[in-house]
Write a structure and sequence with these properties.
Distance between the termini: 87 Å
Oligomer: single chain
Family: Belongs to the FlgN family.
Largest sheet: none
InterPro entries: FlgN-like, FlgN-like_sf
Protein name: Flagellar synthesis protein FlgN
CATH superfamily: FlgN-like
Shape: rod-shaped
Order of helices and strands: HHHH
Strand content: under 5%
Pfam family, one: FlgN
Helix content: over 70%
Structural class: mainly alpha
Low-confidence stretches: none
Mean pLDDT: 90
Organism: Paraburkholderia caffeinilytica
Radius of gyration: 26 Å
CATH architecture: Up-down Bundle
Amino acid sequence: MKDALLATLIEEYSAVEAFASILTLETKALTALSPLELLPPIVEKKTELIGVLARLETTRDTLLAEMGFPSGWPGMELAASADARLAAQWALLQKAAERARRFNTSNGELIRVRMDYNQRALTALQVAVPQKTGFYGPDGRIPARSAA
């Protein structure tokens, strides 16, 4: 049982490292001039890895339950406290997950800044130009003067 849990942790660590690498590519894409061309395959790979990570987490929780431990972080902490190999791999996994979390937070901020910039640009383009005599409207006609 412990060997299966250790193998799952190793596989989970690899998946988190792959996820962190994809987040690095996402950072580069988000800072590029034309991110829309670069982002679709990155989003596809992220979605795939999220599925892999969810499956591995379920497997880990199942193995923990079979060993008599609670699921999730508390169970993993208990299992790791009873086995040095599990503790070492669990520590590696936690460090990789923290690194991926930092990348993801940073990318979220980049997206927020880009969206804010786009919204301000759109607002600037939509500012209503005061009607002046002699200027034509979007229909190509000069609007009638209103009697003041």
